[in-house]
Design goal:
four-stranded mixed β-sheet; two-stranded antiparallel ribbon; 726 residues; OTT_1508_deam-like; mainly alpha
Length: 726
């Protein structure tokens, strides 16, 4: 006999023995109630509670009087006007709607049914939550349908509230002897005869609801067949060329008003607009078509821009996209001051460098959209390090930060030798943590070295040799990063910097130097952290870490008939400047040598145009809204990269008086105001967006009036080699 068979036999014998023992204990406790009261356990056979609950079903005596009164008083009204079934007085839920709907759609999946229902009845829920609800409804509906099949349609409607709903939807079996016994009992109570009185009304209401859902589903399926989704909406140049009734032959705008019983403009939660719920203060008139979502797909709805948040969003993002096209590097480049005038300024400057580099070591993935920001709060207990990050796994960054701060706690007690070891240990940990980013930098460094190699071999063999030595270390990232850090003090760096200075725009030389600097940045950051921990040990005494993941991206406002270059620029120029406007547009066209309007619409419809809250802005708004106290009263937010054009403007215009951060000045369209996430701050948000839009227009007009092509590109991250960011 195998070991597995032997084990099963032993378990079976043990289970039999325990069953006998438990039965004896149960009988003893049942016979002696005084003893049972003293024992802190009860012994019941598995399934006892459900069988006990079924006893309640078998004691059911028929519909409660309140249910019968409602049915008798309102049956005629519901039969004549089935849409009123959902109106006051409180209706009884027709759960058979769910299995009938399931049958009607030929066993379509839960996902399909949820998608069809989404636009009509899920304004308070997301699609995923609706799927959960639909799954629950289908399960409950199948139980009620069993009752209707056995007792006649309408039986489930008249069961009433004498017993809790879960008696019918969970406790009552779907089939078997107990189910048949329960059905016999319900027949004896007269349920089939009572249900027959309301059957016509029941079927009328069900058919009405199914008819409405068929129309929604037909529209959803037709849109699916035509592949009209948010990402493909760019196929339609002219929004008016895609009228509402062309895509929804059975579903007009009036259906939304009648079937939901509300006016669109007064919906409590609004419609789906660009992947986000449009708040109730959005105005929807009936002139130009926009797009709402049915089952996650685009559906044309009539609307026009009005003085609402929708208009403000259009007026915010449209000039921003054009700025990105004309010259993405237009904002002022702001560097941290390297010459503090007072001891307080010097203390603040040191803290700011520390925060920036602490943020840097929490940034572990390649790409411009992954950013981490850190600010220090002083509360009654001590210091709190607040981490905001756009990384998907913010817990990973939070755990890493907590680990680094814990190691820094004892830095002030160490000898010089042990300080060096701690620095190397932290550096190795951070490089390992950010290996994806390190690997990306290594690849880019290799690429640019290959581009420079031939020229260097002939003009500067010493520099070529030193760079080749770095390339030889690409298979050992830790050693390469250390060598890149040492390179910043070499004569070869001076030679490379002279080549960089000879160019006026990003060149292979400047990019080669940049990625050498990036590879050495973990050593530089580690030194800064350990040195600062030695100077300010009190900061690390019991420091706590809290993480704030940034909100998910939103959909940008969708294209409409006003989304074109001339429409956007006409809002910037005065009426008497229209001739100048046309001349400037023609000059731009000649200079750029591509269709600006087409490029504008293409960028605006890009599926990757998904504005998100940037980490430093999210942290700023959190500190401001919670009125948190900054470390050393210095309202500075550290960040792993210099701030973008929009974040720089947000800091400038914010009433909280925050310290202006270093900025690379690059225009990134995937930017969203952090106040957009807070319904209570819409007035403040509107003021902020308008102030920023004014600056957009000012900068855009300057770009249009004085167009240039050869603007110097500025990288998002600092090279970390020059004295200003040493």
């Amino acid at each position: 006999m195998s070991a597995h068979a032997t084990n099963n036999q032993l378990l079976t014998e043990e289970a039999h023995y325990m069953t006998l023992q438990l039965k004896r204990i149960q009988e003893r406790l049942q016979d002696n109630h005084e003893l049972a009261r003293l024992v802190p356990f009860s012994v019941q056979q598995r399934g006892y509670r459900d069988r006990n609950k079924i006893v309640k079903i078998l004691s059911y005596r028929g519909p409660d009087p309140e249910t019968l009164h409602i049915l008798q008083d309102y049956t005629q009204r519901w039969h004549e006007d089935p849409s009123s079934f959902g109106s006051p007085p409180p209706m009884l839920h027709i759960h058979t709607n769910d299995p009938l709907l399931r049958s009607e759609y030929g066993n379509r999946s839960i996902e399909d049914i949820a998608a069809s229902l989404w636009a009509q009845c899920a304004l308070n829920h997301g699609l995923q939550q609706l799927k959960v609800d639909v799954r629950s409804m289908i399960d409950m509906g199948s139980r009620y349908r069993n009752i209707d099949i056995n007792l006649g349609y309408g039986a489930s409607l008249v069961l009433g509230t004498a017993l809790p709903e879960n008696m019918w939807t969970k406790i009552l079996p779907k089939s078997g002897a107990l189910f048949e016994r329960a059905m016999d009992h319900l027949r004896a109570t007269g349920i089939p005869n009572i249900a027959q009185q309301f059957r016509q009304m029941f079927e009328r209401v069900i058919e009405y609801e199914l008819s409405a859902l068929r129309r929604l589903t037909a529209a959803e399926l037709q849109l699916q067949d035509q592949m009209i989704d948010f990402d493909a909406i760019g196929e339609f140049e002219d929004m008016n060329a895609y009228p509402l009734d062309a895509s929804l032959p059975e579903l007009g705008w009036d259906y939304f008003e009648s079937s939901n019983g509300v006016d669109v403009a007064s919906m409590s939660d609004g419609l789906v607009y660009g992947g986000e719920w449009v708040p109730s203060n959005f105005s929807c008139a009936t002139e130009q078509p926009l797009y709402a979502s049915v089952g996650g797909r685009a559906m044309a709805i009539p609307s026009r821009r009005t003085e609402t948040q929708l208009q403000i969003l259009h007026e915010f993002y449209e000039p921003l996209v054009i700025l990105r096209i004309l010259g993405p590097w237009i904002g002022p480049r702001i560097q941290m001051s390297s010459r503090p005038n007072t001891s307080v300024e010097e203390s603040h400057a040191t803290l700011r460098i520390f925060l920036d580099r602490l943020s840097w070591i929490c940034d572990y993935e390649p790409g411009g959209e992954t950013v981490s920001a850190i600010a220090l709060e002083v509360d009654a207990i001590g210091i709190v390090a607040w981490l905001a990050t756009s990384h998907k796994s913010f817990q990973k960054a939070e755990t890493h930060l907590r680990s680094i701060l814990r190691r820094l706690h004892s830095a002030h007690t160490l000898s010089a030798e042990h300080v060096h070891r701690l620095t190397q240990d932290i550096c190795s940990t951070c490089i390992g943590f950010a290996m994806k980013r390190v690997t990306r930098y290594i690849k880019l460094f290799q690429d640019f070295f290959q581009k420079c190699h031939d020229a260097l071999e002939a003009s500067d063999p010493l520099l070529d040799r030193d760079l080749a030595c770095l390339v030889d270390l690409v298979r050992t990232p830790f050693e390469l990063c250390a060598a890149a850090d040492r390179f910043r003090d070499s004569e070869s760096l001076k030679s490379l910097s002279r080549l960089v200075s000879a160019t006026t725009s990003p060149s292979m030389w400047s990019l080669l130097r940049h990625y050498i600097g990036r590879l050495g940045s973990w050593h530089r950051a580690s030194r800064t952290l350990v040195e600062y921990a030695g100077m300010r040990p009190e900061l690390f005494e019991g420091i706590r870490v809290n993480a704030l993941p940034t909100p998910r991206p939103i959909r940008a406002p969708l294209v409409d008939d006003l989304t074109n270059i001339r429409s956007v620029l006409s809002r910037i120029y005065l009426v008497e400047e229209r001739v100048t406007l046309e001349q400037n547009i023609q000059s731009l066209q000649r200079l750029r040598r591509f269709d600006l309007n087409l490029e504008f619409k293409t960028r605006y419809r890009d599926k990757n145009f998904r504005p998100r809250v940037h980490a430093e802005a999210w942290l700023l708004e959190y500190f401001y809204s919670k009125d948190l106290v900054f470390m050393d009263a210095d309202k500075y937010i550290g960040c792993s990269k210099p701030s973008c054009y929009c974040c720089n403007l947000y800091f400038q215009n914010h009433q909280g008086g925050f310290v202006q951060r270093p900025s690379h000045g690059n225009v990134w369209t995937n930017w969203q105001s952090p106040m957009h996430q807070n319904a209570e701050k819409q007035t403040e948000n509107t003021s902020m967006l308008r102030a920023m839009t004014m600056k957009f227009r000012e900068d855009l007009k300057a770009q249009v009036c004085r167009p240039t092509v050869n603007q110097t590109r500025v990288l998002d991250s600092t090279t970390g080699i020059t004295p200003s960011n040493a």
